[in-house]
Amino acid sequence: MHPVYANEAYPGQPGGPGGVQHTVVNVPIEPTKDYLVWSLCSFVYANFCCLGLGALIYSVRARDRKALGDQNGAQRHASSARIFNIVAVVLTSLTLFIYIVVVIAVSARH
């Protein structure tokens, strides 16, 4: 062993003669998305069977839960808002597509 480092840890090695060095790393939790903008768009443009309204309500609830510090509640409400948004957009798109196909079919017939 080198005489300078006889009673010390080698450079780059954790700890020293007395013990082990511990490092604590705080990883920030990713903030929960509340999908409020998407819900507003679904409410205004894709409010099929009031699903956009349901998405908007759950988005506001998710934002309230996030403000209170309840991450689990915020995650649950945000998940519901996301599902309502997806269903509203899919059903509205499908309805619009079917309407366009029917209009084209009727126009071609005449």
UniProtKB/TrEMBL annotation:
Keyword Membrane assigned: yes
Alphabetical UniProt keywords: Membrane, Transmembrane, Transmembrane helix
Matching InterPro entries: CD225/Dispanin_fam, IFITM_antiviral_protein
Location of this chain's protein in the cell: Membrane
Transmembrane segments: 35-60, 81-108
Gene Ontology CC entries for this record: plasma membrane
Coiled coil: none
Record-stated family: Belongs to the CD225/Dispanin family.
Protein name per its UniProtKB record: Interferon-induced transmembrane protein 3-like
